[in-house]
Amino acid sequence: MTTDTVLDLKPEDVNVDQATSPESTPTTSQNGDTNSTEKTVAKRTAARKKAADVHVYDTIVVGAGISGIAAAYKLTQAGYDDFIVLERAARVGGAWRENTYPGCGCDVPSSLYSFSFAPSSKWSHLFARQPEILDYLESVVEQFNLGEKIQFNNGLEKARWDEEKKQWVLDTAQGQYLAKTVIFSTGPLTEPQTPKIKGIETFKGEMFHSAKWNHDYDLTGKRIAVIGTGASAIQFIPQIQPLAKELYVFQRTAPWVLPKPDMQLGEKAKSWVEKYPKIQEKWRGAVATTLNVINVGLRNPKLLEPANFLSRQLLKKQVKDPELREKLTPNFLIGCKRILFANNYYPALQADNTTVIAHGLVEIDGNTVIGANGERHEVDVIIWGTGFDVSHPPIGSKIANAKGEILSEVWKNSSPEAYLGASMQDVPNAFLVLGPNILVYDSFIGIAEAQIDYILSGLLKMKELQFSRFEIKKDVLQKHNEKVQKQLKSTVFNTGGCVSYYLDENGKNFAAWPWSLKKLKEELVDLDLKHYDIVL
Ligand SMILES: Cc1cc2nc3c(=O)[nH]c(=O)nc-3n(C[C@H](O)[C@H](O)[C@H](O)COP(=O)(O)OP(=O)(O)OC[C@H]3O[C@@H](n4cnc5c(N)ncnc54)[C@H](O)[C@@H]3O)c2cc1C
């Protein structure tokens, strides 16, 4: 940034005549300083499609999950056409492509867990299952011709900011790409988390994480240990319990479970929804309002009393054995961890072949799994229902900021910070989708869409006003974070007495947005250039 003019400007202050055009200098000389690295990469990637794409894209979107698809749709609709999407896998879908465990489905009604621009009348249930969510995402890509923008099997390996040229240099599985801006939509729940358990290497049986389900392994008649009782585990436990000879469920913390108001949607219901789209629209609105009530409750835990009552009633009705009921009673305030919905979870835990160990797994000795209470069980298979590493987004290891620092190193001692979950310090012209402190109790799709609207408004301003670099102002980000952290102090996430994925290892809440969804959406309506340092 040595010779650049950094301005604190308003859009009307921008003199477009002064703008430089980084696009005018796509060059091969950038390969010069990375020659030796390129040779190595070239050897390694002999079969790869091409070495470099020297076009400087207006934007490159990384990841073709829900967020990447929404970004592709919204960019296209805005006539912002000079972009591509890089996806490391061979299909779109992200989390819904990776998670194929039995019983996998959404826990937000599909009317809301779907794109605002692509309502569907085809859902088989109020809460859709994973295969149909994946089909839906593929159908949206097809419907809006987004496939031509997506490059599959083309994972990002390294992204670095070239300060001189004011552009991003992206090294991928298929070569090198240049872009004025980047949208990192690589997902919040992607890195399966498996705890380091003493003696794990001595286990001789089968072992897999719920996000990497081994469908070739037949669970019938097997002694199964499930580790964890989070959102995925409570969906697959009822499916595998009837197959198991013995099922041992290691529960470190009992979750709050509410009845799932699910039902099958027959052909008649589907045709009504198709004929009268207003029904779906109203239902979407009603679900959003209900979730917003929960959101208000998260900031005023007393308001969650009815949910607390409902959950206890479910437990009382479905679990007759007082000892088991005691084990399954949560010991923290409702809402502190994600509230779960299931009608078949408690019955599966009550089955004769199921044992709930109300302790974490601490050791594995050969085929014996050992709980923190010393309980030992011999098993054939271990299934990790231990969720995802949320506080260290894996994309961090692939991004070098404007100072040349790798983000995962920057985040080593503290979790990531970003303005409105999108704009990071020292990371100009780039955005995260579903980044830090953005989660509200709602559909992630709605949050991602709102963030993309925000990002897009910034990209359009950049194009219109012809500036070459914009980066969130340090003091804006700092004040924003201080406000967020202060506000979070009184929420149930921080005060509810649980250890959740909202909190990093230092106890800092890096995940939740402390206000309402309404406020979040209001703040995301438009990217205000006042908040950014701009270089012409
Ligand atoms: C089992 C499960 C159930 C869920 N249920 C719900 C629910 O009911 N309601 C809800 O709101 N949310 C739910 N979620 C959260 C879910 O993660 C989000 O709703 C949503 O899928 C996020 O979409 P995304 O596109 O941001 O991320 P992802 O779906 O994770 O997609 C990210 C994409 O980026 C790609 N990618 C990553 N790194 C690279 C790279 N280096 N180069 C190129 N491509 C890369 C990945 O391959 C992937 O395709 C659930 C998550 C899981 C795992």
From TrEMBL:
PANTHER family referenced in this protein's UniProt entry, alphabetically: FAD_NAD(P)-BINDING DOMAIN-CONTAINING PROTEIN-RELATED, L-ORNITHINE N(5)-MONOOXYGENASE-RELATED
Name this protein carries in UniProt: 4-hydroxyacetophenone monooxygenase
Bias type Polar residues, positions: 17-38
Record flagged with keyword ATP-binding: no
Superkingdom assignment: Bacteria
Species lineage: Bacteria, Pseudomonadati, Pseudomonadota, Gammaproteobacteria, Moraxellales
MF annotations from Gene Ontology: 4-hydroxyacetophenone monooxygenase activity; flavin adenine dinucleotide binding; NADP binding
The enzyme's E.C. designation: 1.14.13.84
Alphabetical keyword list: Monooxygenase, Oxidoreductase
Gene3D superfamilies reported for this sequence: FAD/NAD(P)-binding domain (3.50.50.60)
Enzyme class label: oxidoreductase
Residue runs in coiled coils: none
Organism, scientific name: Acinetobacter stercoris
Presence of keyword Heme: no
Region (Disordered): 1-44
SUPFAM superfamilies the record matches: FAD/NAD(P)-binding domain (SSF51905)
